[in-house]
Amino acid sequence: MGSQAPTSPVREEEPVPTRRRQPGQDAPNYSLWRGKFSIELHHGGFFCGLGSNRCYLEEKVDWFDDCAAKTWSQMSIDYMLNTCGYPSSSMEHVYWLQPGKTLADGLNFVIFQRHAKEMADASKLVKNLVLYVDHVHLLKTQAIADDVVFTCSPLPKVVSPVSPLNERKKRNTGSDDAIAGEGSGSDTDLFDSDYDMEDDEQGSDDDDFQNAVDDDVEDEMIKQELKEGVWADAPIEDEELQLPVDEDGYII
């Protein structure tokens, strides 16, 4: 029997090293079947603003070409960060901007166990994937602050103070109609008299006074005191205040 050539052990495919694009160099034209793509890395800046106003200021942009979807891994991102002078992705927060979205709603914190396959699948159609580096971890701080705000219990409703006068009106009338007339100048709760008040169209306050007071009735007590000269004989210390009286003692 002939000797059989020994078979070499199967070697796992090593990650294909990516290539940093030089300034002024054109982007490669990838074929759809090649399974390669480029990374547009925004770094050296910082996020600013919230929602639709979010932006990345004072940034630097580098492109890395010939990234392979089959070998796309955490090592690829670490290589890009080290090339730009930063530590590995374990120290830096890297966000993937999903194709077709904006900084307001499309940033995903890169967790390779979750996003490696998603990024590889996206590279089949989109040949330029965009990454952002959050050096100061601002987005994580904002996310924690949002969680604290939205998990707080709602504030209790504030009870508006009610005037005791309005409450008395409601009890007397059985409705809120009496409150609607507040400030119009008339208030039945403040009216206190033994006589019925007439409407403004029928008479005035002077007419009510004339109807309620009898001018023909004399005060017998005052008349008797005047007759007895009580007021005239009352001692007054100031002589200038003495009123002149007649022979019968009556005040002239």
Structural class, from secondary structure content? Answer: alpha+beta
How many helical stretches? 8
- The overall average pLDDT, rounded, is 74
**Biggest sheet strand line-up:** 1-5-2-8-6-7
SSE run = EEEEEHEEHEHHHHHH
- What is the terminal-to-terminal distance? 168 Å
Strand runs, count:
8
Principal-axis shape:
rod-shaped
- Ranges with pLDDT <50 over ≥5 residues? 5-13
The largest pleated sheet is described as:
6 strands, mixed
Which band does the percent of strand residues land in? 15-25%
Task: Give the proportion of residues in helices.
Answer: 25-40%
Structural Rg: 49 Å
What do you see in this structure?
With 252 residues, this protein is an alpha+beta fold. It is 28% helix and 16% strand. It is built from eight helices and eight strands. It has helices at residues 74-83, 112-122, 138-151, 164-173, 177-180, 205-212, 220-228, 230-233, and strands at residues 19-20, 36-43, 46-48, 55-57, 60-68, 93-97, 107-109, 128-134. The strands form two sheets. It has a six-stranded mixed β-sheet with strand order 1-5-2-8-6-7, covered by helices on one side. Strand 3 (46-48) and strand 4 (55-57) form a beta hairpin. The chain is rod-shaped and about 140 Å long. Residues 5-13 have low confidence and may be disordered.
